[in-house]
């Protein structure tokens, strides 16, 4: 699934490590999500959406 | 559970696997010294101590080593750990069934393969029922 996590993270000048800490996941998991190698669970997707002040649909796009 | 609580739990768990590794090394020493084999005692301890050191030193550099060290703090790592455990289980079941079939075709008793296969089968059945009901 495509997503805008990398772009949103960069607009906030956050590293993957910092975003991972804020969301309670590892740096590698943030990287895997950004690259589309891992689709987060619904709770994590909602946590990300709330963190960036968006809806889940605005961040994650079904191909 | 809050993120802080999760992190505290993870920090504690990071040392569990290395501690168990060292404990196994001490176990090797005790068992082989009791059998009068100091060479194997030293070798067994060296292997476990080396593995523990490998986990501690490389877990920051490699995610796979971090997982082996027991750092399963987020959902993706939990899924990786579950998949690895499931694959291990499948390989073990295949080995057990192969051993069972080979012993039977040789005309031997299938023991202990039959017992291992039964334990594996019953565990899989009960686990499937349990996790289905749990949702």
From TrEMBL, chain A:
Origin: domain of life: Bacteria
Keywords: DNA-binding
GO molecular function, one term: DNA binding
InterPro entries assigned to the protein according to its UniProt record, in alphabetical order: Cro/C1-type_HTH, Lambda_DNA-bd_dom_sf
Keyword Acetylation: no
SMART domains in the cross-refs: HTH_XRE (SM00530)
The keyword DNA-binding is annotated on this UniProt entry: yes
Pfam family, one: HTH_3
Residue ranges constituting the HTH cro/C1-type domain according to the UniProt record: 5-59
Designated name of the protein: Helix-turn-helix transcriptional regulator
Native source organism of the sequence: Streptomyces boncukensis
From TrEMBL, chain B:
Any Pfam family: DUF2178
Residue stretches spanning the membrane: 15-34, 40-59, 80-101, 113-132
UniProt keywords, alphabetically: Membrane, Transmembrane, Transmembrane helix
Domain of life (superkingdom): Bacteria
Entry keyword Phosphoprotein: no
InterPro entries: DUF2178_TM
Protein name from the UniProt record: DUF2178 domain-containing protein
Organism, as annotated: Streptomyces boncukensis
